[in-house]
Amino acid sequence: METLVESTERPDGCTIIVADPTGEGGTLSGSAVAVSFRPAELEVRPDGSGNLLGSRCQSCGAHFFPIREACSGCLSRDLDDVRFSTNGTLYTYSVVRQSTPAFEVPYVLGYVDLPEGVRIMGQITGCPIEDISIGMAVEMVLEPFGTDDDGNPLTGFRFRPAEAS
Amino acid sequence: MMTGVHVVGVGMTRFGKHPDSDATDLGSAALLEAIDDAGIDARLIESAYVGHVFQGMVTGQRILAQVGLAGLPLANVENACSSGATAIREASLAIRAGENDVVVAIGTEHLTSKFSGALTPDPSDPEAAVGATMPGVYAMRARRYMEEFGMTREQLALIPVKNKANAARNPLAHFRKEITVQDVLDSRPIADPLHLHDCSPVTDGAAAVILMSDKAAKRFANGRGVRLAASTLRSGSVDVTPTSMTFEPLTWDTAKDAYERAGIGPDEVDFAEVHDCFSIAEVLRVEGLGLFEQGTYPWAVERGEANIGGRLPINPSGGLIGKGHPLGGTGVAQVVEVVRQLRGESGDRQIEGARVGVAHCRGGKAVGIEGAACTVQILVR
To answer: Whose CA, among A27, B94, B128, B155, lies 20 to 30 Å from A99?
Structure first.
């Protein structure tokens, strides 16, 4: 289990949790870990905040994840890249107990509906499995998520129960 | 006037583990059986469509070379779990277009040598990157269905119990052993609430069908032809807003197209082979096909309505859960089952008096779309 040395709330509601790269609880080296595991879909900014990325149709207002070239509603090609909200509602979930070698089991997989009208698949974290329920409010959290080909840690996203506001 | 299409010959290997053969061997065996079943000279076959997923380049050409038919126009078809069914549709289009009178469609897969464990979307997919597995996706749909309609875990288990009971009566099925609800609940958890018995197995197998135009069928079918009244294909669309995951617009759209083309409504269907890759999938399929009202199928299963001998038997072959699921082979094997049922050749799992059968396949997952490829075939005696 990696040691978590910092957990920072961001004004946009998104949180990054940075793992200690040395494993000794030493100096935080945020830049060493704040590299998105999927830059086309998850923006991780130098300050450690981040958002899922998608498209918004200028013509009809529909939103899409991931980024698309044309709108499926009206076929307009005038789409803006947008950062999605980090808070949403859990549509459904499952505890996955058999997966590929890339993922340590068990983990909780869920579909989260964001206010923009997109449904995002992501892992659910930050609470006991028995506390997870359909319809619960969740928020996106950035967490260590695998490594690149050279073994450098990457940052991905999960969802956890939203702090009561 | 456009010609009709008839299934005149069918062939299918035993489904299961075939450590000593490969996708070419299996496909060749199924094809030779289909030719013999049709009772035709193999030289009558004018073109071929061959569905497979993980078998590599030109598997279809290898099969035809194996049986002396190299040289025919041939297309290899990949459409995930609908690959074989898509091959049938392509073959039927070649006939309806007037291009050919006799066409073969083959589906084959030697899955045990390519793959084990939980199937996942393509690794490049954003959902695969966060840990999506096919059992995980269907488990999430099962949980949502339970929440919305009050289906119990025990009710869901009745589907593998039914399908494995049917498979026990099918000599070509992967599993030949009946199970109980308790066996399902006691089997290894795969993705809550799904257990191992809720999942279709990793299977090797192949199937082949020979399709003919009206003209060819009149000459060669000897009264054994079964009419392929419709063969439709759709791809999942990108949702502009998230839709229910407990109903399948993709299945319904594909089915509606088929019902309209066939001039046959869901109320006229006598039985169906549907894509039960997982127990919950059978619920979603039959409700998406309009065969049962949404939110009612688990209770219908409880009442025995979907059993052989019930009001509307579902997956008399054992389905993917019982018969096995060699991806490319599956869609063709479904049609083999429907044809044999309609001919009255299904032994002790025969559905008496069946006149209209439906085969439904649905496969693949990509981010943002409901499902990748869906096919519906309506066959009429």
So the answer is: B155
SS3 A36: strand
pLDDT at A159: 98
Contact B117 A98 (CB under 8 A): yes
Q: Per-residue pLDDT tens for B83-122?
A: 999 999 999 999 999 999 999 999 999 999 998 777 788 8
Q: Write the DSSP symbol of residue B245.
A: S
Cα B30 to the center of its chain, rounded Å = 16
Residue A43 backbone class (left: φ over 0; alpha: ψ -120 to 50; beta: rest):
beta
Written as six digits, the tokens of B173 are: 């099925």
Residue B150 touches chain A, beta carbons under 8 Å: no
- State the nearest Cα–Cα gap between A7 and chain B, in angstroms: 21
**CB distance from B368 to chain A under 8 Å?**
yes
> What is the pLDDT, as a whole number, of residue A165?
56
Catalytic residue among B6, B18, B52, B81: B81
Q: Which residue has the tokens 């074989």?
A: B84
User: Per-residue pLDDT averaged across B64-81, rounded?
Assistant: 97
DSSP character string of A102-162: TSPSPEEEEEEEETTTEEEEEEE-SS-GGG--TT-EEEEEEEEEEE-TTS-EEEEEEEEEP
Q: Tens digit of pLDDT for each residue in B174-189?
A: 999 999 999 999 999 9
Contacts of A123 in chain B (CB under 8 A): 130-131
B275 is catalytic: no
Average pLDDT, chain B: 96
The alpha carbon dihedral of B297, B302, B305, B310 has a sign of: positive
> Cβ contact (<8 Å) for A94 and B242?
no
The two three-digit tokens of residue B175, written as one number: 């599993």
pLDDT value of residue A10: 39
Read out DSSP for B139-195? HHHHHHHHHHH---HHHHHHHHHHHHHHHHT-TT-S------HHHHHHSPEEETTEE
Complex ipTM, two decimals? 0.92
Largest CA distance in chain B: 57
Whether the predicted pLDDT of A134 surpasses 50: yes
Q: Where are the domains of chain A?
A: 4-161
Query: Which residue in the block uniquely carries the two structure tokens 């066939």?
Result: B262
Question: Scanning the structure block, which residue is given the tokens 């590299």?
Answer: A35
pLDDT at B13: 98
Q: Cα(B376)–Cα(B228) distance, rounded to whole angstroms?
A: 11
Say whether A86 sits in a helix, a strand or coil.
Answer: coil
As a whole number of angstroms, the distance between CA B73 and CA B61 comes to 10
